[in-house]
């Protein structure tokens, strides 16, 4: 956990949230909140007077009333609903307390990606033909190959790798051991977490006489701006064209994205998801953890896939799709598993019975 | 995507495919194709006159007829079936257009693994007792430990790791940050993609008084020739004996193979597959993406496992096994999930009804 | 596989097992076993006279009787049950042969984590403000950042990374390319396998106007003592508080643990498991391979989750939970999958039939 320390003025945070959100999220200090100073955010239950805490919604109002937080961030209607409990407390009122928290936290951290101290550290290996912006930073053990370009204020972490002719955008950040293969392009402000591998060879082989002939993967990977890619996630380069990740999409750890996939903008892809090759995912889709997506399919914009759900095909419309086997105590599951294998039999018995019952009915009717 | 540029003669490609396939795949130029020059492959729909495109099968004939590709690669019977549309076009005829494409692509890339410029680059750390063939290349940040052997024309990528007494075969390639633990052996022409880890400790612990006692893993990993291992894939070393991967087997990204597994030759293991320890997979098996294979079982040669399929046991015969929960719109799934838990009850109701119906029938008969 | 070589005295092994188990596991030599020398362990079937082999339980007695092993390790009651076959053989008797094997193997390897040759190797990058104990070792290509602390006899492998103010405990081992982010703490004797990433950013974003606002992750990861973490496993840092892994817990390869999880002590988490954020797992739980655990839930101490089982919620009590779709030959599965989607319909037919049968019964009764 972070050490306590520096104090932040709440009125300064209000200004910064407005600035960071491009003026889209307004907020207002009440009951003296503007003149308060805070050291950081904390959950409602753990917050002390030196903390600021946000109220996630009506369900959190009781915890909010009991919280020791110095300042609370909540919606006006919730402050009103709380009545007495919030009348004299230092408050920040805003339409979206959770987003407010996100931006205010960024402000406290000095920006989501504070510009690094510029320079190439000893122990970094930069090919003479690479172009590293003078405001960028390259850490020890990092390797930047021939013809690569590193943009302004980009940060290439310890042991990270930027392949031949790869391009890293302005203010992008590669955490330690992040890997970007040759000719791949990473957009501005994009974050590659530790150990992710962008631009490995796509998995393409032609069968021939019982063996597999490798198809060279000559495409690359194009990652948009403001993307985040999780630790040890892998995104393969395309066979002929590029694999593409759209602007603003957030990808968690241990995700695998196959060659020639096209992922839209502002998607959320949770941990352990696998997407086989040549699949298209539209804008604003959310894929739950460990969802498994077949290759060569198209998921329309705005769709959601539940966690641990296998998706083999998709219709035309956006949907919320789920396919989780309901887990049970092991003994119950043993019975269930047997039943599942007998379902066709059960169906048959049901049909036979229905026919018998029809005959019985007509027998009685006679 | 790759830049356009260099032109390749189609008759040269025909020669190269014959050579690379060991003469097993013949091809023939028609309607002037032999004298054409092409810059590269492209999908039928995107191809321009400077491209060559292959026709994957009868279903692609319509797209092929409409394609602007300068040269088409297809089967003789398909060219005939297409009639008019292909009569005067530059064609390459071959029994297996997909494999032709694979080998011709390799030829265009200068071979699947063109021999690297020899030498140990500045910033590589090679123990004095390691044997590095003079024709091999070791990149910056790579570490080669004591007693390791690097074969002719092998390429040890930036930041890759070759442990004590490990052996890397002729023309093998370790992409950046690929890891090969001590005493592991990698065969000739095998490709280890970025960030894969061969030879981590197997997961072996003896329970004792509520705690877990580590069993040292003193085996290693033996990887055959012409194998490909995907980015961030992990293969553990054996407890006593070695974990073994057979010749020609292709393994995708994010795969986990437990200690003491024995994987056969020419298998395909798709992304996100997990194989628990001590399992044997026969030759020519295909495991679909995210399949989950239990430990201590044996899958016969020639078997297939569907994507996202859990395999807990296997009989004697090769099979195509599937176990995917069919995903549905969330509301439908909620109903289905309830039903699955009630299956034993349903079965019971069915039996009761059947008995009642029998009684009713004998009642009417009376 | 390990080369043969050094011989170990069985009486010395008996002493060492007693010492390593803290005197909790006694063992006794019979029929001259104490004066035997052995070169290593081998499975019963492969063992030669120079090997020692353990008998896992009554089922292994037949193989044990036929084994060529020079010395057998087994329980007294099993030796007795075996009768003749074991009467004159050199034996080690102990209450827990498997744990005996684990500790004796450790003794043969010179301890589970033999203290490394101290020193910072050429090619390691250690910030001048980092504190590296003089008995620790830092390998080539490793990076230790400002303010980090490396404890006595700790071993920082080739290309491993220790972030700013991170702390590595006494005798801990980081295998090559293991990554420990800033401010994370790793306990004594804990093993981080190749390529694991501890302390990547948690996956936290606030939705705002169709986009996702990053929530800075200011917590860290606290890993206890005697923990083992597998190759390419990822454990994210907490949003506000730390993610916590309890003492003695063993985690396999390719596991993903989300931010703010609290994993108890002496758990076993098998390969490919995913645990979403803010979930609590009690002490002594076992999670089978590829189990997928939802976020914000609590799994009581002593619970077990089957392999490939999705867990969306949990009651109050410890349970053995399973949720595996039973796999079948593909054609059978196709029928089953159709049935599963029709379950609500089947249920309805069953109800209709039951009502009809009731009516028929009352009709006959009349």
TrEMBL record, chains A, B, C:
EC number: 2.3.1.191
Class of the enzyme per the UniProt entry, highest EC level: transferase
Organism domain of life: Bacteria
Catalytic activity: a UDP-3-O-[(3R)-3-hydroxyacyl]-alpha-D-glucosamine + a (3R)-hydroxyacyl-[ACP] = a UDP-2-N,3-O-bis[(3R)-3-hydroxyacyl]-alpha-D-glucosamine + holo-[ACP] + H(+)
GO molecular function: UDP-3-O-[(3R)-3-hydroxyacyl]-glucosamine N-acyltransferase activity
CDD domains (UniProt xref): LbH_LpxD
Key words, A-Z: Acyltransferase, Lipid A biosynthesis, Lipid biosynthesis, Lipid metabolism, Repeat, Transferase
Record bears the keyword Hydrolase: no
Coiled coil regions in record: none
Pathway: Bacterial outer membrane biogenesis; LPS lipid A biosynthesis
Family: Belongs to the transferase hexapeptide repeat family. LpxD subfamily.
Described purpose of this protein according to its UniProt entry: Catalyzes the N-acylation of UDP-3-O-acylglucosamine using 3-hydroxyacyl-ACP as the acyl donor. Is involved in the biosynthesis of lipid A, a phosphorylated glycolipid that anchors the lipopolysaccharide to the outer membrane of the cell.
HAMAP family the UniProt entry points to: LpxD (MF_00523)
This protein's name: UDP-3-O-acylglucosamine N-acyltransferase
UniProt organism field: Mesosutterella faecium
């Amino acid at each position: 956990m972070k050490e306590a320390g520096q104090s932040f003025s709440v009125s300064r945070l209000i200004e910064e949230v407005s600035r960071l959100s491009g003026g889209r999220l307004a907020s207002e200090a009440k009951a003296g909140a503007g003149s308060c100073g805070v050291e950081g955010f904390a959950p409602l239950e753990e917050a002390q007077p030196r903390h600021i805490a946000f109220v996630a919604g009506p369900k959190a109002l009781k915890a909010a009333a009991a919280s020791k937080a110095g300042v609370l961030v909540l919606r006006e209607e919730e402050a009103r609903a709380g009545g007495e409990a919030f009348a004299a407390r230092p408050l920040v009122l805003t339409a979206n307390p959770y987003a407010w928290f996100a931006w205010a936290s960024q402000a406290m951290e000095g920006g989501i990606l504070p510009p690094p101290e510029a320079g190439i550290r000893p122990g970094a290996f930069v090919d003479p033909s690479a172009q590293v912006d003078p405001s960028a930073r390259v850490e020890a053990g990092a390797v930047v190959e021939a013809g690569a370009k590193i943009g302004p204020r980009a940060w290439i972490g310890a042991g990270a790798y930027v392949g031949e002719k790869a391009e890293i955008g302005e203010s992008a950040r590669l955490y330690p051991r992040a890997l970007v293969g040759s000719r791949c392009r990473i957009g501005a402000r994009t974050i590659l977490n530790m150990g992710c591998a962008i631009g490995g060879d796509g998995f393409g082989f032609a069968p021939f006489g019982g063996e597999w002939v490798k198809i060279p993967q000559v495409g690359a990977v194009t990652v948009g701006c403001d993307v985040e890619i999780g630790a040890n996630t892998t995104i393969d380069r395309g066979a002929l064209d590029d694999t593409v990740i759209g602007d603003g999409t957030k990808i968690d750890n241990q995700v695998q994205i196959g060659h020639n996939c096209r992922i839209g903008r502002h998607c959320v892809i949770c941990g352990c998801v696998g997407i086989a090759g040549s699949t298209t995912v539209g804008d604003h889709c959310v894929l739950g953890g460990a969802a498994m997506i077949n290759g060569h399919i198209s998921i329309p914009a705005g769709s959601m896939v539940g966690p641990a759900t296998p998706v083999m095909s998709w219709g035309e419309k956006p949907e919320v799709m789920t396919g989780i086997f309901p887990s049970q105590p092991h003994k119950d599951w043993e019975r269930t598993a047997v039943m599942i294998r007998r379902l066709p039999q059960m169906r048959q018995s049901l049909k036979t019975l229905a026919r018998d019952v029809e005959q019985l009915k007509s027998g009685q009717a006679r």
